[in-house]
Amino acid sequence: MRELESADGCIMVVLFESRERAQQNSDRPETNEWYRQLLTLIEGEPEFIGTEVFRSYLT
Is 25 a domain residue? Predict the structure, then answer.
């Protein structure tokens, strides 16, 4: 998603089945490599926000 108030900003949302699955993904070498590549493309560091789905319309 692109931020309306910031032409250079974007929002990425990634959903996992559980916190454990999210941590498993974070621990993968491929994820670390992707993150390092991302840092070369952006200014500053991304902000990570922990959330949970409290209502889903997909089920």
Answer: yes
